[in-house]
Design a protein that fits this description.
The protein is an alpha+beta fold. It contains 4 helices and 9 strands. It starts with a helix and ends in an 8-residue tail after the last strand.
């Protein structure tokens, strides 16, 4: 009877802990201090995105708009964006993407990223515009930076965009 109770207690621990690990496994392997993701003032997870143009690498501290709710809000109502900042909108699967600038006061460069992680096209996001800008092909993500920054930095079609999505991102 004691063995059955112990076995049932063990099953309960496995069922209630994250990722199906037991409480004992979790306790014996504490998470490193860096395991807590860094988040922006808006509460979005921050990741690094690097654009490679020839021999030049440009790194951006990037807000990850992973959920449908985060993607729907995007940069709405934002009044500032630094030259080393961006927002990434990953796709569930490669697809044609379309964006508008409703309630967005900042001009943005809307960078469409193809399945090979290369820029397919860059479109100008005009503040408050309800006109859609679209990808020229299938996209795995869209990256937004300050309007005009792509031209200033020499970022263009064909450039490589490096990023890694967190394994626990809620896409």
């Amino acid at each position: 009877m004691v063995r059955i109770a112990a076995a049932l207690a063990g099953l309960a621990l496995v069922a209630c802990s994250p990722n199906g690990t037991s409480a004992q496994e979790t306790a014996s392997a504490p998470a490193p201090a860096a395991a807590t993701p860094e988040v922006s003032e808006a509460g979005l997870r921050l990741i690094d995105v690097t654009i490679v143009s020839g021999d030049t690498r440009r790194r951006f501290k990037t807000e990850l708009a992973a959920s449908q709710e985060e993607q729907a809000k995007g940069m709405m109502f934002r009044t500032e964006m630094g030259d080393d900042e961006g927002m990434l909108f990953p796709s569930y699967a490669p697809q044609f993407r379309s964006f508008w600038m409703k309630n967005t006061p900042l001009p943005l460069d809307i960078i469409f990223i193809g399945p090979n992680k290369r820029i397919t096209n860059i479109e100008a996001g005009v503040p408050y515009s309800l006109d859609s800008v679209t990808s020229r092909g299938m996209s795995i993500a869209v990256f937004e930076i300050r309007g005009g920054l792509s031209a200033e930095l020499g970022i263009g079609e064909g450039d490589l965009v490096e990023f890694e999505l967190p394994k626990d991102a809620s896409l």
